[in-house]
Amino acid sequence: MKIKKILISQPEPADLEKSPYRNLINKHGVDITFFKFFDVVGIPASDFRKTRIHIADYSAVIFNSKNSIDHFFRMLKELRESVSEEMKYFCATEAIALYLQNYIQYRKRKVFFGNQYFSDLVEILGKHRDEKFLFPCSDEKHTEYTKALDKAKLKYTKAPMYTSQPKDLSKFKLEDFDVVALFSPIGVRSLVKSFPDVKDSSVTIAAFGTSTHAALKEQGIKLSIAAPTKSAPSMAMAIENHIMGKAQETVIASKGDTSRHTSKSAASSTHKKTKPVIANKEVYKQRMVEKKAQAAARRAARAAERAKQEAEATKK
Fold first, then answer.
1. What single string gives the DSSP state of each residue in 127-159?
2. How would you class 57 by CB atoms within 10 Å of its CB: exposed for 0-12, middle for 13-18, buried for 19 or more?
3. pLDDT in tens, 20-43
4. Does residue 259 register a pLDDT over 70?
5. Which residues contact 310 (CB under 8 A, 6 or more apart)?
6. Full DSSP string of the chain
7. pTM, two decimal places
8. What span, in angstroms and rounded, lies between the C-alpha atoms of 44 and 24?
9. Cβ neighbours for 83, distance < 8 A, ≥ 6 positions apart
10. What pLDDT is attached to residue 256?
11. Is the pLDDT of residue 285 over 70?
12. Does pLDDT of 195 surpass 90?
């Protein structure tokens, strides 16, 4: 079947021209529609108070998304609470860490982040077990993130601050699309809610992440395009492989799956030290300029001292 129309269950990229989807459009002439399948709604402060969680009691906070950052600081404002400057911030990725600059100053703050997978962050958290961790998150009971934290036997408090609500997708006709791409379990639930008979349709389902794959299996929906894989780390590349008739590869571990790093972390954790990361790029650049200036001054001072010693030796 020739792929002509694709529905992506995410907002359109801020810069589509630089997005991998642009290459898909130009190279294969497909028509892509972007539409987020759910809304993220904040839990009221009055409901959060019932959990008896006092944010100021914690020494570290774990962020797995920009949503979690937004709602953490929203909750602080609504509760009229504040956190110490000594609070440590642990972020799943560098992009999430950089997003913190919308709310805090970095000069004296301790910010840590993982590389690409949530399991990278779990390794870092394991080196700070004495901290009292707070995990702002959605109201879902169990997610790939909580499973990863539990598996690592980390002591943390789950703090539900927002909820995901499926959107009404009735404005779309499923038969108008050749491929529907999903990225989360809530996206799967939204699709099933609007199209209860989706498992009997001819539409090709693409999904990113093992938790999304599991949600499809639970609903009895066939998964045809699975990502990420070794040759297709992104959804756009996975769809392109399918268009080109390439066989489906084995899915590699996604963010919440710590098995990918188990042996590697065991071998490296004993001799690697975690350092706080200054996530603000402007501050980082300024510090690099200052360090270079200090190094140049030291070199000049040493050169002047050598010249002085040589002059004195000549006089003698």
1. GGTTS-EEEEEES-S--HHHHHHHHTT--EEEE
2. exposed
3. 999 999 999 999 999 999 999 999
4. no
5. none
6. ----EEEESSPPPTTGGGSHHHHHHHHH--EEEE--SEEEEEPPHHHHHTTT--GGG-SEEEESSHHHHHHHHHHHHHHT----TT-EEEESSHHHHHHGGGT---TT-EEEE-SSSHHHHHHHHGGGTTS-EEEEEES-S--HHHHHHHHTT--EEEEEEEEEEEPP-TTS-GGG-SEEEE-SHHHHHHHHHH-TTGGGS-PEEEEESHHHHHHHHHHTPPP-EEE-BSS--SHHHHHHHHHTTPPPPPBPP-TT-GGGGHHHHHHHTTT-----B---HHHHHHHHHHHHHHHHHHHHHHHHHHHHHHHHHHH-
7. 0.69
8. 41
9. 55, 56, 61, 76
10. 41
11. no
12. yes
Residue the block writes with tokens 């709604």: 41
